[in-house]
Amino acid sequence: MLALRIRWISAPALLICLLVLSIAGLAQSAPPAVTRTIQVPGEDRFVPFAITIHVGDTVRWVNNDTDAHYVVSDDAFNTSGRRGVNTLIQPGKAFALKFSKAGVFPFYCRFHAALDAHNQPIAPGPFGGIQDSNGNFGTPMSGVVTVVP
Ligand SMILES: [Cu+2]
To answer: Are strands 35-40 and 58-63 parallel, antiparallel or unpaired?
Structure first.
């Protein structure tokens, strides 16, 4: 009886039904793409240090400092498919990357990633971080973006 009824459904109608069902399935499984912001405040650090996003999302680095800062991908540990990133962000400017693959994207600032003469850990600062007498954080300027499916 069931086989008999299926024969009465025309092939184009069946294809349209399958197409509608598959589009509805895609719409439910993929969350809407969003843009997340990592900012550089008036200090040598990225805020927040770590964020988690979904595939298809965009991360926007905004430099609110008076100094220029880099976003450099740490390719030795980078599995997000975004290799070779090496971008200087001038004060007041921004830089955005869209991530289309799951993985991790560790990054750092070329100028401030090392504990050099200007970024020495001296004592715990008033905000809980390690700062020098000029208010700069002695911890290396780095961060990580985790991209999940
Ligand atoms: Cu920097």
So the answer is: parallel
List Cβ neighbours of 20 (8 Å cut-off, separation of 6 or more).
Answer: none
> Rg (Cα) of the chain, in Å, rounded?
24
Whole-structure pTM value: 0.69
**Which residues make up the environment of ion ligand 1, defined by Cβ < 5 Å?**
69, 109, 111-112, 141
Domain ranges of the chain: 35-148
Q: What is the whole-number distance in angstroms between the Cα of residue 110 and the centre of ligand 1?
A: 6
Tens-digit pLDDT string for the chain (149 aa) = 444 454 545 555 544 444 444 555 555 566 799 999 999 998 788 999 999 999 999 999 999 999 999 999 999 999 999 999 999 999 999 999 999 999 999 999 988 876 655 555 544 444 545 555 665 555 678 999 999 99
What is the distance in A from the centroid of ligand 1 to the CA of 69? Answer: 4
Q: Which CATH class is domain 35-148?
A: mainly beta
